[in-house]
């Protein structure tokens, strides 16, 4: 039996390396082992991070907290001092800070343009950027307003890519100078890749869910407003449900007054009295006016600093930030505008704007339908209104008869005609304004113009002016206020200038606390020192006093600063700002 020679042990020093050359010592094996251990640790770190990230996506609702948790995982895995995630906005031109472990309160408040700064460069070129010391000396660096970047010495920016598309950028930073090893960059890159995919998937799902919710809300709001025949109810439903269902802080609707070329605030769900009293704006003014003029949707990320926005102080007071103005269109004609505000800076997506546009079209149709319904109803009720007006005229004529013995026939007839014309003006305004509402200032201007024409005489120079807000009145209220205004203006002209041939009559429509004030002042003849309204009133003043009581108010007449002032003060709830 032959004996084979024992095999010699293959020592590390005689093993071959990859180049086929014998190894001289165990050093290379140790290096390989170290590299393998490093790769294993890298793999374990990535796997552990991805498991944590997957758990976050599974358990957390999409939002700021979810993004913060993912950012914190990136910070821990890379053993850095701070981490950030910027996400690409829908315009694909800007990146918004979604989470920051160092300054979490800055999330959503800082945006950078793609291509600007180190973060923007990484996004534009879809390449990682690593700066080990003093990143502010890098020519690509810029200071981002609101972020304290100079607190950190090193920076590693890795783009979030999914399917070849940019999703955002993840940054990690250290307070000390630090050179990031290749494996650290690889770990962050692999995490970034998975995070990018997950974010894109969640964004698409969230986008679909949001779109579905928005259109469901639009359908609900459309059904609600379509089911009501009343204009005021439609407008209030529109603003209330739009704010609630689409998560806006304030929603307003302004309707176009074509005669004046103004947009009048008609509805808002805001409970702020100051906001409800916002004045009318002209077509072409501010964002709402331009939206109507240009017949297109306009937005502002921050109305508090926009030079084109009227009412920035009130927006700051009410905590309003971003805004969208959507014109209400019927057959290529803008009949008004719906404005929606958010309390935080918000970018309105194409989907959101499309949804609001669809809602505005439905609302415009409902508004026009309601106006037609109101016209039909008014036609049916016109005989009743005319009957009531005729009864008021009869009552006034009977009162006139009681004073007839003391006055000429001409005076009696002229006074009667004036009162009848005042009532007629109310009906005329109803046909030109909002069908079932009359503006107090509009009514005052109409009556003032009538009296101004009657004063057209070369020897008399009496000027009548009107000022104040256009508070809206119902038909019944408008008739009473019209008679009051007519009597006060006529009294100021006839009795205030019996001894003077020139002067001024000022008609004011005012608001003070919970009351409305109709004030007619004249610079003519002074009241007697012993004047007593209860004793010295003629028929016209008695009519004013009775009608003031009918609307829950009081009538005052006195001297103020050499002017004769007649005031009717009545509760605000009788009138509301139109």
**Low-confidence runs:** 7-14
The coarse silhouette is elongated
- Please report the distance between the alpha carbons of the first and last residues: 121 Å
**Helix run count:** 14
Mean pLDDT: 76
CATH-defined fold name of the largest domain: Beta-Lactamase
Strand percentage lies at 15-25%
**Sheet with the most strands?**
6 strands, antiparallel
CATH architecture of the largest domain: 2-Layer Sandwich
Number of strands: 20
Tell me the radius of gyration.
Answer: 38 Å
Judged by helices, strands and strand pairing, the structural class is alpha+beta
Strand order of the largest sheet: 3-2-1-6-5-4
The CATH first-level class of the largest domain comes to Alpha Beta
What can be said about this structure in brief?
The chain is 46% helix and 22% strand.
What attributes does this structure have?
578 residues; alpha+beta; Beta-Lactamase; Heat Shock Protein 90; 6-stranded antiparallel beta sheet; 14 helices
What does this structure look like?
- The protein is an alpha+beta fold and 578 residues long.
- The protein is 46% helix and 22% strand.
- The protein has helices at 27-59, 64-78, 117-125, 182-226, 231-245, 273-276, 286-294, 312-318, 350-403, 409-432, 440-454, 475-494, 533-536, 539-550; strands at residues 82-88, 94-100, 111-113, 129-131, 154-162, 165-174, 250-257, 262-268, 281-282, 298-300, 323-330, 333-341, 438-439, 461-468, 471-473, 502-512, 515-522, 554-560, 563-571, 576-577.
- β1 and β2 form a beta hairpin.
- α1 runs parallel beside α4.
- The protein is elongated, with a radius of gyration of 38 Å.
């Amino acid at each position: 039996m032959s004996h084979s020679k024992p095999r010699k042990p293959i020592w590390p020093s005689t093993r071959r390396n990859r180049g086929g050359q014998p190894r001289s010592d165990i050093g290379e094996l140790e290096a390989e082992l170290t590299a393998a251990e490093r790769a294993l640790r890298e793999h374990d770190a990535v796997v552990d991070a991805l498991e944590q990230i997957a758990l976050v996506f599974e358990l957390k609702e999409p939002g700021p907290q979810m993004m913060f948790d993912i950012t914190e995982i990136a910070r821990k895995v890379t053993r850095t001092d701070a981490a950030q995630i910027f996400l690409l906005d829908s315009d694909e031109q800007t990146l918004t800070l979604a989470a920051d472990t160092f300054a979490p309160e800055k999330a959503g408040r800082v945006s950078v343009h793609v291509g600007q700064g180190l973060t923007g460069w990484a996004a534009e070129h879809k390449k990682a950027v690593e700066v080990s010391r003093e990143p502010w000396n890098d020519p690509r660096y810029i200071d981002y307003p609101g972020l304290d970047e100079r607190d950190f010495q090193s920076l590693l920016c890795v783009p979030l890519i999914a399917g070849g598309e940019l999703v955002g950028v993840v940054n990690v930073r250290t307070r000390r100078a630090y050179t990031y090893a290749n494996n650290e960059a690889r770990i962050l890159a692999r995490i970034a890749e998975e995070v990018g995919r997950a974010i894109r998937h969640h964004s698409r799902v969230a986008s679909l869910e949001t779109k579905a919710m928005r259109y469901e809300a639009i359908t609900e709001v459309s059904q609600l407003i379509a089911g009501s025949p009343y204009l005021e109810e439609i407008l209030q439903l529109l603003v209330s449900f739009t704010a609630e269902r689409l998560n806006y802080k304030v929603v307003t609707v302004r309707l176009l007054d074509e005669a004046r070329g103004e947009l009048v605030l008609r509805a808002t769900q805001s409970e702020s009295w100051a906001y409800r009293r916002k004045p009318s704006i002209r077509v072409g003014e501010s964002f709402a006016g331009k939206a109507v003029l240009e017949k297109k949707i306009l937005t502002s990320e921050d109305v508090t600093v926009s030079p084109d926005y009227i009412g920035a102080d009130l927006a700051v007071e009410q905590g309003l930030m971003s805004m969208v103005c959507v014109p209400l269109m019927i057959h290529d004609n803008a009949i008004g505008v719906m404005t929606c505000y958010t309390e935080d800076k918000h970018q309105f997506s194409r989907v959101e704007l499309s949804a609001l546009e669809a809602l505005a079209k439905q609302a415009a149709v409902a508004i026009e339908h309601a106006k037609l319904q109101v016209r039909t109803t008014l036609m049916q009720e016109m005989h009743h209104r005319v009957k009531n007006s005729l009864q008021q005229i009869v009552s006034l004529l009977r009162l006139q008869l009681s004073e007839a013995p003391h006055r000429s026939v001409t005076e009696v007839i002229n006074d009667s005609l004036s009162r009848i014309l005042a009532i007629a003006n109310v009906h005329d305004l109803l046909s030109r304004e909002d069908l079932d509402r009359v503006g107090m200032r509009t009514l005052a201007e109409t009556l003032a113009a009538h009296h101004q024409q009657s004063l057209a005489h070369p020897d008399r120079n009496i000027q009548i002016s009107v000022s104040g807000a256009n508070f809206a009145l119902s038909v019944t209220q408008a008739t009473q206020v019209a008679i009051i205004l007519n009597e006060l203006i006529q009294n100021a002209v006839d009795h205030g200038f019996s001894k003077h041939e020139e002067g001024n009559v000022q008609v004011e429509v005012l608001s003070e606390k919970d009351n409305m004030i109709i004030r007619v002042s004249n610079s003519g003849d002074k009241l007697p020192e012993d004047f007593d309204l209860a004793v010295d009133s003629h028929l016209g003043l008695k009519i004013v006093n009775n009608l003031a009581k009918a609307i829950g108010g009081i009538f005052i007449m006195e001297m103020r600063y050499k002017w004769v002032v007649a005031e009717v003060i009545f509760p605000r709830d009788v009138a509301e700002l139109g």
